[in-house]
Amino acid sequence: MKYGILTAVAVATLSIVLPPVSASAQNVMGIAAVVNDEAISMQDVNDRMKLVMVSSGLPDSAEIRTKIRPQVIDSLVEEQLKLQTAARSKLTAGDKEVEEGFKTIAQQNNIPADKFEMALKQQGVPMATLKRQIKAQLSWNNYVRDRLKNRVNVSTSDVDTRIERMKSKIGQTEYLVADIFLPLDNPKRNKEVEEFAGRMAKELQAKKAPFGPVAAQFSKAAGAEKGGTLGWVQPGQLPEEMDKVLLTLEEGQISNPIRTQDGIHVMMLQKKRTLTAEAIPPRDELTNMIGLERL
């Protein structure tokens, strides 16, 4: 199992919807939000903001903290929902799973787990907030796998069709794309999300923060935990609004916010290549790819 920098695996699907939540934002008595009778404290929010600053590379200033606080609270509310949903199905990740997840993150940062923990503490990041993030995401993985294990079927015909489609594209340009997606699902918050996307894009374009870790912390799309990568795509695979922008980007360039039907995207074009027969993945890899797409 792979993890992004300071983030655990998160599986997002369209077929599984989190249950309704009674969440109220408030600042009295140190409570930031209440999720189905379970409180998220302002201390929880402050601890997570420390993690976000360290892992995303965003400047640690009062202005940035004010700007990202709503997104941090949203993330904590979403994590609490995932934990509650998994708990009802008795699929909560155990302490051993969480520790293994932490060790994997440490390995990806090329540092022993104990020294990684010490480094985080030295930067003022409480371990509890990272382990809560890992636990919520692994618990959600357990729930998704349990719900969908008998629903995803990739046939030989599916793989054949994909191979033929790829063969027909040989000689065309492919684009390795990473994406940050912010949904516009609350009319009362849409303007705030749009403003945040604009500020985030400017920070990324100015290279004040690395794209991958920012995607891991803020993107709500599948693939966020891998730095927002969408893999190799061809013209026509993305929404029209994104397609048009993609064709104008140079390698390493980051787009301005792109408004689509579902939300706002900020893309990074990582590489371009010409599709060759050798670039077509083997059948077993394609089977896994199609299965993950259907999740």
From TrEMBL:
<dbReference type="InterPro" id="IPR046357">
    <property type="entry name" value="PPIase_dom_sf"/>
</dbReference>
<feature type="signal peptide">
    <location>
        <begin position="1"/>
        <end position="25"/>
    </location>
</feature>
<keyword id="KW-0697">Rotamase</keyword>
<dbReference type="Pfam" id="PF00639">
    <property type="entry name" value="Rotamase"/>
</dbReference>
<dbReference type="GO" id="GO:0003755">
    <property type="term" value="F:peptidyl-prolyl cis-trans isomerase activity"/>
</dbReference>
<protein>
    <submittedName>
        <fullName>Rotamase</fullName>
    </submittedName>
</protein>
<dbReference type="InterPro" id="IPR015391">
    <property type="entry name" value="SurA_N"/>
</dbReference>
<keyword id="KW-0732">Signal</keyword>
<keyword id="KW-0413">Isomerase</keyword>
<dbReference type="Pfam" id="PF09312">
    <property type="entry name" value="SurA_N"/>
</dbReference>
<keyword id="KW-0574">Periplasm</keyword>
<dbReference type="InterPro" id="IPR000297">
    <property type="entry name" value="PPIase_PpiC"/>
</dbReference>
<keyword id="KW-0143">Chaperone</keyword>
<feature type="domain" description="PpiC">
    <location>
        <begin position="172"/>
        <end position="271"/>
    </location>
</feature>
<dbReference type="InterPro" id="IPR027304">
    <property type="entry name" value="Trigger_fact/SurA_dom_sf"/>
</dbReference>
<dbReference type="InterPro" id="IPR050280">
    <property type="entry name" value="OMP_Chaperone_SurA"/>
</dbReference>
